[in-house]
Write a structure and sequence with these properties.
The complex is a heterodimer of chains A (162) and B (200).
Chain A lengths: L1 H25 L1 E4 L7 E4 L3 E5 L5 E8 L6 H15 L2 E2 L5 E5 L2 E12 L2 E12 L2 E10 H15 L3 E4 L2
Antiparallel strand pairs in A: 1-10, 2-3, 3-4, 4-9, 5-7, 6-7, 7-8, 8-9
Chain B lengths: L1 H18 L6 E11 L2 H14 L3 E5 L3 E7 L3 H11 L2 E11 L1 H27 L2 H33 E10 L13 H4 L3 H8 L2
Classes of the chains: A alpha+beta (162), B alpha+beta (200).
Chain lengths: 162, 200
Amino acid sequence: MIASSLRARAIRVAALLFVTGVILSGCATARMDAPEAFAVFDGERTFVSTSPEGVVLRARLEDNNPEQDLSFWSEALERNLIDSGYIAVEDGSGSFEAPSGDGRYFQWLAPVGREDWFYLTAVTVSGKWIVVAEAAGPYEYYRDHQASLLESLTTLRIERSL
Amino acid sequence: MMRRAVPAIMVMLLATAAVGAQQQTLSISINVHALVFDREAASTELTDWAESIGGYFTLKSEERVVMRVPVAAVNDLRVLIYDRADLVVEYNPQAHDVRQELSELRAGIESREEALTRIMGYIEDADTASTLALERELTAILGELESLQGRLRARINDTRYAHVNIDLSTREASIPKQIPSSFSWINRIDLYQFLREVRR
């Protein structure tokens, strides 16, 4: 009788922990400070901001599964985009530090219609999460905001709400 | 072949410069074909640069730039083009020694100036009929003299300014095709998917 009581209590505690874990993980959101002159659209699990000319920036969370480090994921990302045909901007990659951890970014060129567009991809790794930031815009407009976009990467963070 | 041509021309330029500016006899022409991302910006940058170093342009369009660049700045031009272009398809410098032509032009000018001097001397003592004939001869020689002087100025200009023709093309743009990754989140890293999602 005592054993069954203890078992039942253990099950309740485990269930409570499980539900708590689900709640906490389900409310995690990627956030970052928007570059100057960008309008912000806060989503439940994503952060999106846009400049007046249409340069867009987004940050979101992905599961770090299988769990690997920044070196692994940045190399996997870079290799996949190169193999997919994206053109790496010369001297367009680098490292940065953010509240969500150390990060790597890559800048690419790709056509959108008849225009050349810049495509920024950045990742940081924080425990069970990969924080992914992407930005894109036409060549000349992206150049205007390039410095502030890269600066914004240093503000990538994970926020949790209950 | 181009790698050998550029140092050879630089040696010739140095040798010519050592003799003295008034004796430069090389006419430099350079043909370039470059791939750039923004042809209008590249065209403007090239012509602005040429003017900033004492040169000038004779044609400026998105497709083509024709400009004259001081011979001393030819190497700087090469550095600029290779630095700014996405891909240099062709860089073809050529040098032509115009020493013989300059010599012939100067000789022709000298002989016509001598003829002018003689004719002016004859006119002073000539009768009316002879004067008319001499004036016709004078007019013809003056025309030849102006033509030769014009050609001489042009050839001297050719030795001071390299003739540069730059054809601009945009890089061929091929849309990236997402290669499937073993990792699901990497499969969601795609410019076109990103744009569709943020524009919804």
